[in-house]
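Sequence in, structure out.
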Amino acid sequence: MPAPISLFPIDFQKQSMKGVIVSLLSIRWPLSAKEICSSLRREFSVSSSYQAVHKSLSELTKSNVLERVGLKYRLSRDWISRVKNFADKVEKLYAAKNEFLEFQPSDVVNFRFSNFIECGKFMINEFYAKFPNPDKKDDVSFNEHAWLLIGGGDKDFESLKKICSRSNIFNITKSGSVLDRVASGFLSKLGKKCLVGVNPPIEGDVYIVGDYVAQVYFPSEFKKKFFKVYQSTKDFSKFDLPSYFRLISSDAFITVTVSKNAELADFLREENRKIFAKRGFKSHV
């Protein structure tokens, strides 16, 4: 399986051992495992054991991100080519207001955002607005907590209203807290069909448009604080909105992984249909 391609600045990759290795080998190559381990400690302040570094090198090589040159490693030229192709696609995607460049079935791309608000804007203005769904299949999403989106502009709100007005857009939120019900209730008023306090067919925050599956990954520290807000708010009239805004606008480096996977998308869409059908909702086939 091709390795996911990450499109974000090198500095952000310091949170990941594999990311740092890729960063290092993009500057200097080829290097032995011993040289890489030494450079990680000296240049990136990453103090990991030789065994941990060797394990990451093996996994990166197996994923065709790296290739062996004798006893040394360098970036795979095939992977570099895929990164370049993806970068070109994303550049054109952002440059064009109505253009979308089709993913290949094996394509996987990671988008990295500096905070929760920017991530939300991407989902509204790019993923839902530009990723194709020619057969008009159900748009479905699943969340641990319903996103309470604030901090956007008029354009973002208009885009959100347009998305939620679609006749075949659904959401299932696992938690049924006060904030989950408020956030889902707001989206329901805009037209989105929402369920709260219901176990979704997949863990995490997952969004599906057409054959495209987007999965959102929060850094552990941000996720802990984000979840705590929902769990601690028992009365919406006492909700600390300024504190929440500071949290979602703070640096968090959130990753959205997008892949073209028709089989998975259709499976989750069908599971969503069954869950809603039990509650009297109808969805498109």
